[in-house]
C-alpha cells in the first residue's frame, strides 16, 4: 500500500496529504445497510492490506487496534512500529500514515470528529495524546497516569472519555481540558465500556473476576451493580474468569455485556442482572497478551471479539477463521453456545471490529482485512 510518512512528533513538519473528507454517500463497492441478519453468513474477506513500506529483514508490524469513525467511512489502525494507518472505506484504499516514533502508539480511537483522534503512549511517559490528523498537530496531552494505559472508551454522545491504567486508576476526561475531571482508585481496572445510552459505564477488573457498573451522573458513589464473572462462569475454567480478558463491550440494544477472553471462549452476560446468558465456545485461544498482561508474549490484544451493531451477533477471531454466534441461540444445558457460522480466514483475526454504519468487518494481525457480504452467497 502507498504510505506517506508524517512525523507527528515534529510540530514544524509540513509534509502530508490533504484532509480526508467523510462524505455520507456510499461508493459503488460499499455495502448498503441491509439487516445484519440477512447477510451475516455471507461475509467474505474481500480487501487485503499489507504494509509495503516495511521491507525484510525488518519484521512486519502487528496491528494493535482497529477503529472506525462515526460515519463509518474511515478505518484506523495503531501498530507496534509506532504508526497510525488510516484507510478510506468507501474507496477501499490506504490514505494516510502517521508516525509517533517518539511516544509510540496504541488504542487509537476517533473522537466524534473524524479528523481528530486520541491514543495512548507506549514510550517516554503514559500520557494520552489528542491529535488533529488533517494538519498533523497535537491538540492536547492528557497527563496523569503513572503506568501503561490499558483502555480508552469514548462516551457515545460527547467527547468525554474514560481511561484505565496499570497504576490502578480509572480517570475521566473532557477533551476540552488537559486535567482529568474524576479519578477512581480500583485494583486492576483494565477495561472500560459505555452502555449505548451513555448513562452507565462498566469497569472490568480481571484480578477479582468482576465487572462494576456505575451511574455516570453519580460516579463518585459506589458502583450500583457488581457482576461476579467467577461466580457465573458456567463451563469456563476458573482461570478464564479472572485472567486473560481481551474485551469489554455493551451491545447496542443494551441487553448484553460481552467479556472477551484469550482462553477457549467468551462470556455473554445479562446487562441487567449479571447472569451468564452463554459461554461462547471457541477452539483454542489467542496467542496475544490479554489486556494488562505483561508476561508470556510480546504483543497486546485490544479486542478480538465484538458485537454487531444490531446487538444480535458476536464476532470473534481465532487462530484461524472468523467465528459468529447468535445471541438468540439456545445454549446447551451447561450454557455452552457454539458458533452459528464459521467464516474461512487463513490469517489470524487477532483484532476484530464491525463498522458501526455499514455491513463491513475489519480484522487484523499483521495485515488488515476488509470483509463484505458476497451478493452471490
Explained architecture:
The protein has 377 residues and is mainly β. It has one domain (36-373): YVTN repeat-like/Quinoprotein amine dehydrogenase (Methylamine Dehydrogenase, Chain H), CATH 2.130.10.10. It is built from 2 helices and 29 strands. The strands form 7 sheets. It has a 5-stranded mixed beta sheet with strand order 18-19-20-21-25. Strands 1-29-28-27 form a 4-stranded antiparallel beta sheet, with no helix packed on it. It has a 4-stranded antiparallel beta sheet with strand order 2-3-4-5, with no helix packed on it. A hairpin with a 7-residue loop joins β12 and β13. The longest helix has 5 residues, at 238-242. The protein is globular. 47% of the residues are buried.
Offer a few descriptive terms.
Swd2/WDR82, mainly beta, four-stranded antiparallel sheet, five-stranded mixed sheet, WD40-repeat-containing domain protein, disordered N terminus, repeat, 377 residues, Methylamine Dehydrogenase, Chain H
What's the short version?
With 377 residues, this protein is an all-beta fold.
In terms of topology, how is this protein built?
Layout: H1 36-39, E1 43-49, E2 63-68, E3 74-79, E4 83-88, E5 93-99, E6 106-110, E7 116-120, E8 128-132, E9 137-142, E10 149-154, E11 160-165, E12 169-174, E13 182-185, E14 191-194, E15 200-205, E16 210-215, E17 225-228, H2 238-242, E18 245-250, E19 256-261, E20 265-270, E21 276-281, E22 305-307, E23 313-317, E24 322-326, E25 336-337, E26 341-343, E27 351-354, E28 361-364, E29 368-373
Question: Count the strands?
Answer: 29
Please identify the structural class as seen in this structure. mainly beta
Portion in strands: 35-45%
What's the level 1 CATH class?
A: Mainly Beta
Determine the mean pLDDT: 89
- The helicity comes to under 10%
CATH superfamily: YVTN repeat-like/Quinoprotein amine dehydrogenase
- Overall radius of gyration: 19 Å
Broad shape: globular
**Poorly predicted parts:** 1-31
What is the number of helical segments per DSSP (H or I, 4+ residues)?
A: 2
State the domain count: 1
Instruction: Quickly give the CATH architecture.
Output: 7 Propeller
Amino acid at each position: 500500500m502507498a504510505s506517506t510518512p508524517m512525523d507527528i512528533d515534529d510540530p514544524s513538519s509540513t509534509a502530508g496529504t490533504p484532509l480526508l473528507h467523510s462524505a455520507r454517500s456510499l461508493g459503488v463497492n460499499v455495502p448498503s445497510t441491509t439487516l445484519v441478519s440477512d447477510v451475516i453468513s455471507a461475509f467474505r474477506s474481500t480487501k487485503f492490506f499489507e504494509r509495503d513500506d516495511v521491507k525484510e529483514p525488518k519484521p512486519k508490524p502487528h496491528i494493535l487496534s482497529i477503529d472506525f469513525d462515526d460515519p463509518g467511512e474511515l478505518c484506523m489502525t495503531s501498530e507496534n512500529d509506532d504508526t497510525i494507518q488510516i484507510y478510506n472505506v468507501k474507496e477501499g484504499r490506504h490514505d494516510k500514515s502517521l508516525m509517533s516514533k517518539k511516544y509510540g502508539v496504541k488504542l487509537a480511537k476517533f473522537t466524534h470528529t473524524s479528523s481528530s483522534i486520541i491514543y495512548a503512549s507506549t514510550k517516554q511517559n503514559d500520557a494520552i495524546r489528542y491529535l488533529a490528523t488533517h494538519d498533523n498537530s497535537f491538540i492536547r496531552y492528557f497527563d496523569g497516569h503513572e503506568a501503561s494505559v490499558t483502555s480508552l472508551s469514548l462516551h457515545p454522545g460527547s467527547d468525554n472519555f474514560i481511561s484505565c491504567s496499570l497504576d490502578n486508576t480509572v480517570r475521566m476526561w473532557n477533551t476540552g481540558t488537559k486535567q482529568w475531571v474524576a479519578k477512581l482508585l480500583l485494583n486492576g481496572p483494565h477495561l472500560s465500556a459505555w452502555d449505548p445510552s451513555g448513562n452507565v459505564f462498566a469497569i472490568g477488573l480481571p484480578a477479582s473476576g468482576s465487572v462494576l457498573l456505575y451511574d455516570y451522573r453519580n460516579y463518585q458513589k459506589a458502583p450500583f451493580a457488581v457482576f461476579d464473572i467467577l461466580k457465573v462462569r458456567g463451563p469456563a475454567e476458573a482461570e478464564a474468569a479472572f485472567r486473560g480478558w481481551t474485551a469489554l463491550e455493551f451491545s447496542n440494544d443494551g441487553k448484553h455485556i460481552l467479556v472477551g477472553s484469550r482462553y477457549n471462549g467468551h462470556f455473554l452476560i445479562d446487562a441487567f442482572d449479571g447472569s451468564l446468558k452463554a459461554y461462547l465456545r471457541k477452539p483454542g485461544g489467542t496467542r496475544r497478551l490479554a489486556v494488562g498482561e505483561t508476561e508470556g508474549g510480546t504483543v497486546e490484544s485490544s479486542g478480538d471479539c465484538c458485537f454487531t451493531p444490531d446487538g444480535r451477533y458476536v464476532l470473534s477471531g481465532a487462530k484461524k477463521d472468523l467465528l459468529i454466534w447468535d445471541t438468540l441461540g439456545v445454549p446447551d444445558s451447561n450454557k455452552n453456545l457454539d458458533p452459528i457460522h464459521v467464516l474461512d480466514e487463513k490469517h489470524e483475526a487477532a483484532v476484530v471490529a464491525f463498522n458501526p454504519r455499514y455491513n463491513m468487518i475489519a480484522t487484523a494481525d499483521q495485515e488488515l482485512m476488509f470483509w463484505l457480504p458476497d451478493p452471490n452467497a
